[in-house]
Amino acid sequence: MASKGLQDLKQQVEGAAQEAVTAAGAATQQVVDQTTEAGQKAMDQVAKSTQETIDKTANQASEAFSGFGKKLGLLK
């Protein structure tokens, strides 16, 4: 009879341990997902900022070249 009680207790402990492991795994996955998402957002922002800088620089270069060409009489 005591053996049956110990076996039930062992199963309960094993079940609780498995649930704890599953919950810890799910929490870890959530942290990984959030970290990955934050990293992706940061990379997207860097790419956007870099593209805006490239566009502005290209615009400024084009305007400078146009002004230079007008001064030399090459452009109207």
List the helices and strands and how they pair.
Layout (H helix, E strand, L loop, with lengths): L1 H70 L5
Notes on the structure:
One of its GO terms (cellular component) is cytosol. The chain has 76 residues and is an all-alpha fold. It has one helix at residues 2-71. The mean pLDDT is 87.
Instruction: Calculate the terminal CA-CA distance, rounded to whole Å.
Output: 104 Å
Query: Order of helices and strands, N to C?
Result: H
User: Based on helices, strands and strand pairing, what is the structural class?
Assistant: mainly alpha
DSSP helical segment count: 1
- What percentage of residues falls in helices of 4 or more residues? over 70%
Residue runs with pLDDT of under 50 for 5 or more positions = none
Please report which band the strand proportion falls in: under 5%, 5-15%, 15-25%, 25-35%, 35-45% or over 45%: under 5%
Output mean pLDDT. 87
Q: Could you tell me the number of beta strands? A: 0
User: Main beta sheet, described?
Assistant: none
Overall geometry comes to rod-shaped
What is the rounded Rg? Answer: 32 Å
Summarize the structure.
The chain has 76 residues and is mostly helical. It has one helix spanning 2-71.
Question: What are the key terms here?
Answer:
76 residues; mainly alpha; 1 helix; rod-shaped
